[in-house]
Write a sequence for this structure.
């Protein structure tokens, strides 16, 4: 068996389960993405100067995109040698990661994408093992 990877991801963290002939290893990558803060000054009472007091949405979006790019690059660096990749997670992060993997033309292929809400790291590893068993070790 060559390297197979299952990973759960959202915008905050990625739990990566790497399965090889030697066994199984779990890695954790934490992103530096901050929670979306409420714009201070979102009030009709603030008047016409509100726009000057609050950073623009464009600058916050650019900062978020840059942080996510660093995060996705770290995840891709961890799974670069994978023969096959199973991606799952709750939101849109899994789809964005899939696009980046395809753009980077990794040697392994994506065998599946599933929507799964928040689960523990142990449940993630169990899901990867279950997927392997269901497919007789092949993806």
């Amino acid at each position: 068996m060559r390297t197979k990877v299952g990973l759960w991801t959202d915008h905050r963290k990625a739990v990566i389960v790497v399965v090889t002939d030697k066994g199984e290893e779990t890695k954790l990558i934490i992103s530096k993405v901050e929670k979306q803060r409420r714009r201070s000054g979102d009030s009709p009472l603030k008047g016409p100067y509100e726009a000057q007091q609050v950073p623009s949405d464009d600058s916050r979006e650019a900062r978020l995109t840059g942080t996510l790019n660093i995060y996705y690059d770290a995840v891709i660096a961890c799974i670069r040698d994978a023969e096959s990749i199973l991606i799952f997670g709750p939101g849109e992060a899994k789809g964005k990661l899939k696009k980046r993997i395809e753009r980077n033309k990794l040697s392994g292929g994506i065998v599946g994408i599933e929507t799964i809400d928040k689960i523990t790291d142990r449940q993630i590893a169990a899901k990867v093992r279950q997927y392997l068993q269901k497919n007789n070790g092949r993806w």
Notes: The mean pLDDT is 81. The chain has one domain: 4-33+55-134. The beta strands are 4-9, 13-20, 23-30, 84-89, 109-115.
